[in-house]
Amino acid sequence: MTNTLNFEKACQILSCGDLVVMPTETVYGLAADATQGMAVAKIYELKSRPSFNPLIIHVDTLDHAQQWGVFSEEALKVAEEFWHCNLSPLTVVVPIKKDTLLSSLVTAGLESVAIRVPSHPVALSLLKIYQRPLAAPSANRSTHISPTTARAVQKSFGRQTPFLLEGGACTIGLESTILDLTTKDPTVLRPGATTVEMLESILQKPVRYTTDKAIKAPGMMKRHYAPNLSLRLNCLQPEKDEAFLGFGDQGTRKPDLNLSAKSDLKEAAANLFSMMLALDRAPFRGIAVAPIPFYGIGVALNDRLVRAATPSDPLPLGDALHPQA
Ligand code: TXA
Ligand code: MG
After folding, report:
1. Is 217 contained in some domain?
2. Is the bond preceding residue 314 a cis peptide, omega within 30 degrees?
3. Each residue's pLDDT tens digit, 256-274
4. First CA to last CA across the chain, in angstroms?
5. Mean pLDDT lowest for which of 104-108, 175-179, 190-194?
6. In the chain, what percentage of residues exceed pLDDT 90?
7. Which pLDDT belongs to residue 51?
8. What SS3 state is found at 179?
9. 100 and 203 part of one domain
10. I need a labelling partner for 226 at 20 to 30 A (CA). Which of 49, 105, 131, 314 fits?
11. Are 116 and 20 part of one and the same domain?
């Protein structure tokens, strides 16, 4: 487990411009000092990530977040609520503060910046000790399944795995909700555990899903979160040679793995990526997934599944969430 020496070593590595893997409550992150361009470039290189795809910066408090982004009343409201009170994973996209020392590689040249305060104690301790923002996408090769355990990170990067702070299995298991507050109406770019309903109840106004066709969040790219085997969704039973990933009571049909036998969507979210990884192997030739209800964090679960199963061009989030629209 992570101790003081590990934190010291992680800080040394980061200040020298190298990468560290840190656990967060959502997924493990591949962290670099966001003020060092060369360090941030290493994230893109190790992940083989397209450079047009900007990164989230992680800080320890709303106060620190305000050094890097301009927070409107609305941004302050949601940040206070979800970063400091009812801890629920939220990234806000806000205008970037002028003349900051943030590497332009972090924002991929945009005039806005995505910021979040994670709630995982290891990530928070690292940020408190390091005192500089950390750019951190999920710690996996681009388009692959996001890691929710240290083992999954090691599986993705093998011997290239950077220094890793161990933090157990991620409790949420899906990436943070991304809320864009630079548009006229607050817009969710990527659904997550912090639902539209939760955001609307704090903002007291409608929050919409993006219908923008431009790639603004990684979840809008083709083959994101994808296993190697093909994925079939909303299946009541598997074909021959398919693995079956169940949800809820499957009666007498025994699934190979069950996201949540008691139909708990939070448990299913925490299990999704690790179970997809576990079934992504011979002798299976595909993975069939049981239907997942479309409410609460089920919206984010279905979003990840649709994208993992869709071998097509970038999909606007609104279309992915409402395929019939
Ligand atoms: O839960 C999470 O958010 C995880 C953990 C490690 O914190 N991080 C994560 O980062 O999922 P990443 O890089 O995979 O997703 C961040 C996405 C970017 O790819 C990008 O599309 C969007 O956030 N983003 C970043 N800056 C943006 C901006 N200025 N405008 C719009 N979208 C932005
Ligand atoms: Mg990712």
Report:
1. no
2. no
3. 999 999 999 999 999 999 9
4. 47
5. 104-108
6. 72
7. 63
8. strand
9. yes
10. 105
11. yes
184 found inside a domain: yes
Give the number of other CB atoms < 10 A from CB of residue 138: 26
> Would 189 be classed as within a structural domain?
yes
What average pLDDT does the segment 113-130 reach?
A: 98
Q: Spell out the residues 6+ positions from residue 321 whose beta carbon is closer than 8 angstroms to its own.
A: 191, 209, 299, 302, 303, 306
How long, in residues, is the chain? Answer: 325
Q: Read out DSSP for 247-308?
A: -S--TTS--SEES-TT--HHHHHHHHHHHHHHHSSTT-SEEEE----SSTTHHHHHHHHHHH
- 75 assigned to some structural domain: yes
pLDDT band of residue 68 (cuts 50, 70, 90) is very high
In a mutational test of the pocket of ligand 1, which residue from 48, 178, 188, 304 has the highest number of ligand atoms less than 8 Å from its CB? 178
d(CA 225, CA 260): 20
Q: What is the pLDDT of residues 5-41, one digit of tens each?
A: 899 999 999 999 999 999 999 999 999 999 998 899 8
Q: Do 118 and 157 lie in a common domain?
A: yes
**Structural domain for 271, as ranges:** 230-309
In this structure, the dihedral spanned by the alpha carbons of residues 78, 80, 82 and 85, taken in order and rounded to 10 degrees, is -140
The number of domains in the chain is 2
Q: How far apart are CA 86 and CA 147, in angstroms?
A: 24
Q: What is the whole-number distance in angstroms between the Cα of residue 178 and the centre of ligand 1?
A: 7
**23 and 163 belong to one structural domain:** yes
Q: How far is the CA of 101 from the centre of ligand 2 (A)?
A: 24
The protein residue whose alpha carbon is closest to atom 13 in ligand 1 is 137
